[in-house]
Amino acid sequence: MKLEGQVAIVTGAGRNIGEAVAILLAEEGARVAVIDNDGERGERTAAAIAGAGGEALALVADVSQSAEVARAVDAVAKRFGRIDILVNNVAISDNKTILDIDEAEWDRVIAVTLKSPFLMAQHVARRMIADGTRGRIVNIGSTSGHRGRGRAIAYSAAKGGVANLTRAMAVQLAPHGIRVNSVSPNKTGSPVGRDVFDPSRPITNLVKRPGQPIETARAVLFLVSDDSSFILGDNIFVDGGVMAMEVP
User: Which of the residues 155, 156, 185, 219 is marked catalytic?
Assistant: First the structure.
């Protein structure tokens, strides 16, 4: 197993990509802290890991709030004794244009989608450095952060921020032995913030189907394992080729 004896934190791990990432990392030997603001969802993921013979800790936290992040990180370190991996997955979307979004919704999307990976990485990296851990951090981005789109103005801005946050974090944390990268999916599983997959959602990519959460999870596993030891500050598109296509 690629992650035997390691400890991973996955945010937004109660559903979709986060759930798939948490379960896959556990299958590869990691003990996993499942963080979600919905306790029932988080417990379900943790139970699935435990049922397969793994070890998981379910925590409820609003990771856009520094005090809650600090409590969650402390709880993980107390339970498992170390932190090797952080996957910043949690996000919400606005699905609004610049003409109809209000300030409160803008602030909330930016806080959850961009501020939370900053806070989680700050608290986790400080602990990794104090413990002498050569850690790995993966931020879940989106193709929406790499090009303009007709809606989701706050989400697009936040994911654009995640792209450069990843690069800046990689530069600043590399001297401490911490590798930082990102993965950018497109239309994978159910829409951001929703539990139900919509089969009628239009798909435009080179393989003519939506992405599956496990496909993004496999890219995350690559980036948190030693298989990617020479990759820092980079992004992997798991998008069915969307970013390679010419916009009509």
Answer: 155
Q: What pLDDT does 246 receive?
A: 80
**Whole-prediction pTM:** 0.96
Does 199 score more than 70 pLDDT? no
What range does the domain containing 126 cover? 7-244
Task: Please tell me the distance from the alpha carbon of residue 144 to that of residue 158, in angstroms, as a whole number.
Answer: 9
User: Residue 55 is encoded by which pair of tokens?
Assistant: 């070890």
Give the tokens for residue 79. 């339970």
Dihedral over Cα of 72, 14, 183, 110: its sign: negative
Check which CATH number belongs to the domain holding 154 and give it.
Answer: 3.40.50.720
In a domain, 142, yes or no: yes
177-186 tens-digit pLDDT: 999 999 999 9
Checking if the pLDDT of 196 tops 80, the result is no
> Known catalytic residue: 144?
no
